[in-house]
């Protein structure tokens, strides 16, 4: 006969969960903003290398969504919620460098790279901040930094001299 067992919601220590939420939440919000603003750029790019930039921006958007999902689910796996509602994203993430309207590809690439660089600042802060607290959450931030830096390279290669 089996006895009912009480299982804890997560395997984590509350301090670890709080630190993961503190450092990964800004990364999630920035990435969610990138999925929206990257689509804006995808739709309005004009000029040189149109098709390549148009398609690359969709790849950047897809990666941003995947990265956001990985970081958000790390927080939730540790037992805490994340507020990534669109109103919260709009409130907490700095305005995008992507302008409204049709924009030349070279300018738009610089704008998206500026948005990525803002996320990289938060990602680096997460890597540093989680170093002594939770290596598993830090690994999530490292994976995101590696991926964002690769996408940044693919974008910058279009405009680098
Ligand atoms: Fe599309």
TrEMBL record:
Looking up CDD domains in the UniProt record yields: DPS (cd01043)
What's in the keyword line of the UniProt record?
A: DNA-binding
In this protein, which residues make up the domain named Ferritin/DPS?
36-160
The record's InterPro entries line, in alphabetical order, gives: DPS_DNA-bd, DPS_DNA-bd_CS, Ferritin-like, Ferritin-like_SF, Ferritin_DPS_dom
Q: What molecular function does GO assign, one term?
A: DNA binding
Which Pfam families does its entry note? Ferritin (PF00210)
**What family does the entry list?**
Belongs to the Dps family.
Question: How is this protein named in the record?
Answer: Starvation-inducible DNA-binding protein
The opening ranks of the lineage are: Bacteria, Bacillati, Actinomycetota, Actinomycetes, Micrococcales
């Amino acid at each position: 006969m089996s006895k009912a067992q009480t299982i804890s919601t997560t395997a984590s220590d509350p301090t670890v969960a709080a630190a993961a939420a503190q450092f990964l939440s800004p990364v999630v919000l920035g990435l969610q903003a990138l999925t929206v603003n990257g689509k804006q750029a995808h739709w309005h790019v004009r000029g040189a290398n149109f098709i390549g930039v148009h398609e690359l921006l969709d790849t950047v958007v897809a990666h941003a969504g995947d990265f956001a999902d990985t970081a958000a689910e790390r927080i939730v796996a540790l037992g805490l919620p994340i507020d990534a509602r669109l109103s919260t994203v709009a409130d907490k993430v700095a305005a995008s460098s992507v302008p409204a309207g049709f924009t030349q590809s070279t300018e738009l690439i610089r704008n998206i790279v500026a948005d990525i660089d803002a996320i990289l600042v938060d990602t680096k802060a997460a890597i540093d901040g989680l170093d002594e607290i939770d290596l598993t959450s830090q690994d999530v931030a490292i994976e995101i930094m590696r991926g964002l830096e690769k996408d940044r390279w693919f974008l910058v290669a279009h405009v680098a001299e």
